[in-house]
Amino acid sequence: MRFGKWTMILVCNVIMITGCLITLYDDIWVIFAGKFVIGLAIGGYTVYCPNFIYEIIPGELKSQVGGVCNFIVTLGIFLPALFGLAIPDAEDLDKDD
Length: 97
Prior knowledge:
The chain is mainly α. Helix content is 76%, strand content 0%. The protein has helices spanning 5-22, 28-56, 62-84, 90-93. α1 runs antiparallel to α2 and α2 (28-56) packs antiparallel against α3 (62-84). The termini are far apart.
C-alpha cells in the first residue's frame, strides 16, 4: 500500500506527539527513548516536508525553495545545539564556592 506525503506528515505528527508524551515520564532512560522517537519523527519531516513543498510550488521557484528548506533544516539543528551551551555541566553545579 502506498501512502501520500501529506499522510506521512500526519503520521510524523502522531509520532512526534507520542515522543513528547513519553518524555514527560520521570526516568532518564524513558526520556532517552522519547527523544529517540522524536528524532524518528524529525527525520520523517526532513524527508516528507520538502518533497511535499516541491510538488505544490511552481517549477521556476524550486531551486530557491530548495535552498530555503536546506537552510531551515540546518538552522533547526544549529539552534538547539547553541542553546545547549547555556546549560551548565553537572560538575559546575556541584561546586561549593
